[in-house]
Amino acid sequence: MQQSLVAAARLRYASLSQGTVSSLTSRRCLNLSARRQLLQPSKHVRPTQFRPFYSSTATDTQSPSDGHAQSTLFAPLDTFARRHIGPSSDDTIEMLKALDPPAESLDEFVTQVLPADILSSRDLKIEGPAVKDSKGQPGKETSSEGFSESQLIDRLREIASGNKIVRSYIGCGYAGTRVPEVIKRNVLENPGWYTSYTPYQPEISQGRLESLLNFQTMVSDLTGLAISNASVLDEPTAAAEAMTLSINALPSARQKRPNKVYLVSHLCHPQTIAVLASRAEGFGIKIEVDDILKDGSKRVEEIGEDLVGVLGQYPDTLGGVQDFKNLSEKVHKLKATFSVATDLLALTVLTPPGEFGADVAFGNAQRFGVPFGFGGPHAAFFACSEQHKRKIPGRLIGLSKDRLGNNAARLALQTREQHIRREKATSNICTAQALLANMSAMYAVYHGPEGLKSIAHRVINSTRVVAEAASKSGYTIETTGPLFDTVVISGGAIAGKAGDFAKVAEQEYKTNLRVVDENRIGITLDETVEKEDIQAIIDLLAGAAKSSPKLTVDSLAKDIGLSAEDAASHVPAELRRKTPFLTHPVFNTHHSETNILRYIHHLQSKDLSLVHSMIPLGSCTMKLNATTEMVPITWPEFSNIHPFAPPEQAKGYETLINELEADLAEITGFHSVSLQPNSGAQGEFTGLRVIRKYLEQQPGKKRDICLIPVSAHGTNPASAAMAGMRVVTIKCESGTGNLDMADLKAKCEKHSEELGAIMITYPSTFGVFEPKVKEACDLVHKNGGQVYMDGANMNAQIGLCSPGEIGADVCHLNLHKTFCIPHGGGGPGVGPIGVAEHLAPFLPGHPLVKTGGEQAIAPISGAPWGSASILPISWAYVKMMGARGLTHATKITLLNANYILSRLRPHYPILYTNDNGRCAHEFILDIRKFKETAGIEAIDVAKRLQDYGFHAPTMSWPVANTLMIEPTESESKEELDRFCDALISIRKEITLVEEGKQPKDGNVLKMAPHSVKDIVTSDWESRPYTRETAAYPLAYLKEKKFWPTVTRLDDGELTLSCHTNVNTTNKTQHMVT
């Protein structure tokens, strides 16, 4: 095999040495053909040398073709890689020369960045478009280049046609919804909303912060609880967070009891119960599923002091609505926590959980304007009482004041990253679901309280008509309490044949029903259901029962005495909502399309996103989210499929998921991939759970020690603790940032009988490729442990090396970083894991849909494939880039980072590089010395960058008072230079302070950023700099300027109001941060 590869390399060199270059190539096109290497070889490459990754040069930003000049005549003109990669071929040559030290070629440069022993021994193989024969017919061979944009859309339409859209009344936590087109077009499909980052820099994030505050207000009002966060990943994850909040609320003595029990209603959704099981094990909690109201909730009293908390569902999975007031009192008597999974639409008519004593309420906001999407992404909500506000997980938005005293929103520091507590954390939430939360918030703003009630009333009336038809057709109603949106029926034609009954509904009525078990069928109605749909259900029920009298919607409605105005009249007084909600003007103003459109764009105008400039956040990979990749996510064939639809209705998804899993396995060098995790942090937890399940089956002592370097992201130790592992920290060398191999060796040997895993981020969070990573992997394996690689930085590896080849057993990926799913202002994300063959049997399963390994761990997400509807984005990116495009993009990523490093090195200290003076795809700019010389800190540079039109790099992580910079391959040299010019200009401003020409206090950096209001209305006589210096420090800003809408906020402020309704409902909430 090796000989044939060398022969191929020689053949390639022979064609290269001929020096023929097609005159048809465009300077900004990308030539990534296997045969068409018609460029001069790099000087350091010898004719006989085999290059272990796809070779490319600067001028490979040239034409897309399959090889010969003649074939390029009619090659596609809409190839993608040349559009995705920012620098032109001329720019790439210039950047290589500008490096410090310069590099002769891209391939030589790569060898200066990556350790020689990790370079891949194989070329990537990504299935591309079929190569056509001489007659123009597609053959079996596929191109190593990617699909063109038009080819990709054609292929995706073919795949989408495999998904069959039918009426889904499956329910089980998911409901049909009408996504307002104005919201779909102007939020979900709008790069101004979906390309922004988590709003850590509040001065340039006021739009989505306000919208997320609306989301919190909506949830808090409807649940009747004091405080809500800004979303979590999905409803089952929220349930797990409620459980961990419950244990943290216990006195420390009770937390240590050996027989802790979390009592869960048997009427919770099955996927929620299953996910709880996966989370409980790491905390030593037993999940007990039972009838929580049986015998006056006697089981609560029996558990006694071992009770962690109780979880109910309201309405429950079978549609029932029951009174939990007495249960809540019993739980509180034992000083435990009562949590309720609920439905926001139902709470417009039902008593809010906070009013019957719930401490926590959570659920899925999906039915507020977010489509099924085969399971996600959707924004889950989470609210709690005043008593538990300090323990609320996830991100929280609050109202503060800026430097001028104006109202301004920001993240609350206490809860925005719970994982900063590292191994002491009980939650590893990082990515949330901001984009979907904003959609749901806008849905509530658009409809308002009366509109939401109208929708709820229609759903109730539809459900009651169906229930009446079932009753008159001889079926038994199994749902207890007043009906909301779900009715479960049994008897008649269903008895013992529920599966057959559902099949008839699917085949003859194009309708999906829920098979609860072989004796019961569930029907969940929603706002999309029309009169004709209800009649079809009635006909199905009556026909199967062979009822003789004709039942109609109108006759049944008349028999029941339905009323559009008083649809909740059947709800008992103790269960009926009496308190107002959504009284703030924002929910009572924007009900015309004109008004909501202007409101959406008003908020959007306050936020900086990729539509304005590069976002150079280290460890975040803010690359292009191409339009062609984004287009399919709103196609009905992808967006309107219920996650528990019969598999034969989702053949298109099956094809896409299988292809994406195969491509990701190829890229990572692993055997198998699971796409289930909804975020990178969830991927970490999943990978560690898989490792633990595998280790449990090995002989010897319990292996639960997890080694984690001090440089690791906080989610690593948080995830390890949640998986029930004991964290042992590994030192890093102070000079290089590399792993301290002596410390690693000592701890591996010390814990050799208990060593479970090591978690390594690669390249490291210090921005370098650890030179001894293979040695570290071997050391851990030798001592019985598994290697977990954090793939947050995978953008620096693709095509050049891979976790599997390096020696990792598990790796998670961030599809919202490396594979182009947009960050959405703080979510969604997808964090799949790749595993070696011995771990594949343990990949996560699901209680309702077959997926995962033969010995699958419990599910991590509520949906079998997590956030399935956004997987086409990553699939499209991989397919359009192709194997060569992906590899070339990695090289440009590394080049862009090193180019910025080289330009900034004369002006700022660079914290870590390798022995060749190179960084990986990111690097750390050291600001620490300026605190002593000028009183300037990283936050001052970060805020001043906003005046130059840039989002700050990652601030004070992984090293305090530094800035971590990561460009991506999508940014052009022009944009990189603009960013460098800004930082060099800021360095000159620091110099003025150092020289005493500007004061240490009140200088342009300390006062940054400057809003229009600040420039126009403030008194400038006392300021030591001019308005022009503040607003236009560089000439380009006079033509292209993004203005922060508020001035600097006080990040240390202790009291925040976390509710939109501060001035109107007496519901002011204070969050001590």
Describe the structure.
The chain is α/β, with parallel strands linked by helices and 1073 residues long. It is built from 34 helices and 28 strands. A seven-stranded mixed β-sheet has the order 4-10-9-8-7-5-6, sandwiched between helices. Strands 17-23-22-21-20-18-19 form a seven-stranded mixed β-sheet, with helices on both faces. It has a five-stranded mixed β-sheet with strand order 3-15-16-14-13, with helices on one face. Strand 21 (786-791), helix 28 (803-806) and strand 22 (810-813) form a beta-alpha-beta unit. The protein starts with a helix and ends with a strand. Residues 1-52, 63-70, 414-419 and 1061-1073 have low confidence and may be disordered.
Q: Biggest sheet, open or closed, and with what strands and sense? A: 7 strands, mixed
Per DSSP, what share of the residues sits in E-state strands of 2 or more residues? Answer: 5-15%
Secondary structure class reads alpha/beta
Strand order of the largest sheet: 4-10-9-8-7-5-6
Oligomer: single chain
Q: Provide the gyration radius in Å.
A: 29 Å
| Whole-number mean pLDDT | 90
Q: Tell me the span between the first and last alpha carbons.
A: 61 Å
